[in-house]
Amino acid sequence: DADVTQTPRNRITKTGKRIMLECSQTKGHDRMYWYRQDPGLGLRLIYYSFDVKDINKGEISDGYSVSRQAQAKFSLSLESAIPNQTALYFCATSDLQVYTQYFGPGTRLTVL
Amino acid sequence: KQEVTQIPAALSVPEGENLVLNCSFTDSAIYNLQWFRQDPGKGLTSLLLIQSSQREQTSGRLNASLDKSSGRSTLYIAASQPGDSATYLCAARSGSARQLTFGSGTQLTVLP
């Protein structure tokens, strides 16, 4: 079984809809991250969490919110989706010592 | 603000060739630098991580080097194979929050 899972894997929605992307991990890591990937732009950090009580904004947090429900679960919400939020979204975890990041398979989101 | 650049954006080589992928970063005060592989429609797989105190890391046919003073890292792939075809991303960890900043990647195609 995968260490970092994301649901759904694909989602098509309409402008103005609320969307939640979910991430679960079995690696036992405290640190979790949400990134988006756009063609030609690499990955950009949306939000990150160092533990259940710690949430931090990343480079491009506007239009997004997150919830850290437990050590193993970190959700990303789009309160009112817009077309330029169409992208590939990745969840990741990391340990405290080496900081190697482990990525989920990604969620492809299309906002029409 | 850290910026990471990867050149070229795309590279095509015949099978068996040795090749070098380049990564440059603007802020030399990094904690580590990580190389990832991304297959189409898939998540990122960590290949090598070089700590700031190290000069290189090796794993099989892969060798990554780090020169902090010049703001450069290279990923050397020996005896390339068609299965090496993928997008390769580098990411530098820096800043007070120790966040990863990604390059936009090099898309590698190894021709049989």
Residue fraction in strands of chain B: over 45%
Strand percent estimate of chain A:
over 45%
H-E string of chain B: EEEEEEEEEEE
Given the helix and strand composition of chain A, which structural class is it? mainly beta
Number of helices of chain A: 0
Tell me the radius of gyration of chain A: 13 Å
Cα separation of the termini of chain B: 41 Å
Low-confidence stretches of chain A: none
Overview of this structure, please?
- The complex is a heterodimer of chains A (112) and B (112).
- Chain A contains no helices and eleven strands.
- Chain A is globular.
- Chain A starts with a strand and ends with a strand.
- With 112 residues, chain A is mostly beta strands.
- In chain A, the strands form two sheets. In chain A, strands 2, 4, 5, 6, 9, 10 and 11 form a seven-stranded mixed β-sheet that branches. In chain A, strands 1-3-8-7 form a four-stranded antiparallel β-sheet, with no helix packed on it.
- By secondary structure, chain B is mainly beta.
- Chain B is built from no helices and eleven strands.
- Chain B has strands spanning 4-7, 10-14, 19-25, 30-38, 44-51, 56-59, 62-67, 72-77, 86-94, 99-102, 106-111.
- In chain B, the strands form two sheets. In chain B, strands 2, 4, 5, 9, 10 and 11 form a six-stranded mixed β-sheet that branches.
- Chain B is globular.
- Chain B starts with a strand and ends with a strand.
- The model of chain B has no long low-confidence stretch (mean pLDDT 93).
- The A-B interface holds A 4, 35, 40-45, 48, 56, 58, 90, 92, 98-106, 108 and B 4, 9, 31-32, 34, 36, 41-46, 49, 89, 91, 93, 97-100, 102-105.
